[in-house]
Design goal:
This protein has 113 residues and is of the alpha+beta class. The chain contains 4 helices and 4 strands; from the N terminus they run H-E-H-E-H-E-H-E. The longest helix is centred in the middle third of the chain and has 13 residues, at 63-75.
Length: 113
């Protein structure tokens, strides 16, 4: 009599349900419906030209860059919002495989900040 080994069952990995924060939801809406520019250099350029309506920056931005960004935002009377996560998390939220330190918003679309 020949016995055949039973195939191993694939174990299901349990995924942790993460709660999407309000700012993550608003950034997702912003990326879908609005116009944004990613990156420090382009964002500063748009701030100086007055083409930006809102600036979102990551929590772990370099202190010197944060100081410059907030200074230029204050000069142009532009709202600056700090994202509570890291630049890697912000990049992942934007659908990029690299860190995104700053998002400069030209058009809010349907997002509410």
């Amino acid at each position: 009599m020949i016995y055949m080994a039973e195939p191993k069952r694939a174990s299901r990995k349990r995924t942790k349900k993460t709660k999407i924060s309000d700012i993550d939801r608003q950034i997702s809406i912003l990326l879908d419906t609005g116009k944004v520019v990613l990156g420090y250099n382009k964002s500063i350029k748009d701030l100086l030209l007055g083409e930006t309506k809102l600036v979102i920056y990551a929590h772990n931005i370099q202190p010197e860059r944060k100081k410059d960004l907030l200074y230029y935002a204050e000069l142009g009377d532009i709202k600056a919002v700090e994202y509570p996560g890291t630049s890697l998390a912000l990049g992942k939220l934007c659908g990029k495989l690299f860190p995104v330190t700053i998002i400069s918003v030209k058009d809010l679309g349907e997002a509410e900040f």
